[in-house]
Write a structure and sequence with these properties.
By secondary structure, the chain is an all-alpha fold. Helices cover 68% and strands 2% of the residues. The chain contains six helices and two strands, in the order αααββααα. It has a two-stranded antiparallel sheet with strand order 1-2.
Length: 204
């Protein structure tokens, strides 16, 4: 298989954006359960979300370079019942929208409790948006991976391991980028993200 560079940029850039979002939300969940120190919403989560969104937008732009008729791209969503490409086209903008809202919620410090839990813990809108974004993120990994996994004539890719590998490589690259972000904005989290980046890379 010799994919055009636009496809390589598409899958790599979007995968990094997905992985970085997963890394951010993972760190927030660890903090929620008092396993990691809390981080400033603006300097870490909001900035990280903006970087994630930038990668997603760059990947989306790259996708237009391998379309014969970019002006007809919207039609690709019409076959969502049978086409993994259509599902990817639907899930990607939905995921990008949630990443944007997640970043905005952190930037505006929307931490008013939405759900009260026992003890001092409470669930706010950022945790809810993060959970929704995580579901969409994995749906996007599966959709993208299955575009290639369902190609029977490509035996090397025609495997259930393909979407798993997409997820692992995207996660590894995202956690690696998160470790770089943490080294600047939250040094105490650098080892956490770097450790997970190594684990995900080895698994991939």
């Amino acid at each position: 298989m010799k994919p055009p560079f636009s496809v390589i940029f598409l899958t790599t850039l979007i995968g990094v954006g997905q992985g970085l979002f997963l890394a951010l939300y993972t760190g927030q969940l660890y903090s929620f359960f008092d396993l990691l120190p809390d981080q400033d919403s603006r300097t870490f989560y909001a900035v990280g979300s903006a970087i994630s969104l930038a990668f997603l937008v760059a990947g989306l732009i790259a996708s237009f370079f391998h379309l014969g008729h970019p002006e007809r791209a919207w039609r690709s969503a019409a076959m969502w019942r049978t086409s993994w490409l259509s599902r990817e086209v639907i899930v990607l903008p939905a995921f990008m929208g949630v990443v944007f809202l997640y970043g905005v919620a952190h930037w505006l410090n929307w931490h008013t409790p939405a759900i009260e839990l026992a003890g001092s813990h409470h669930v706010d809108i950022t945790l809810i948006l993060g959970a929704l974004g995580t579901l969409l993120c994995f749906a996007l990994f599966i959709s993208t991976g299955m575009i290639y996994a369902c190609l029977r004539f490509m035996q090397e890719w025609h495997s259930p391991l393909t979407p798993i590998n997409f997820t692992l490589f995207g996660g590894a690259s995202g956690f690696l980028l998160a470790s770089v972000l943490a080294s600047v904005a939250a040094p105490e989290l650098t080892g956490f993200y770097a450790g997970w980046a190594i684990i995900l890379t080895v698994l991939a």
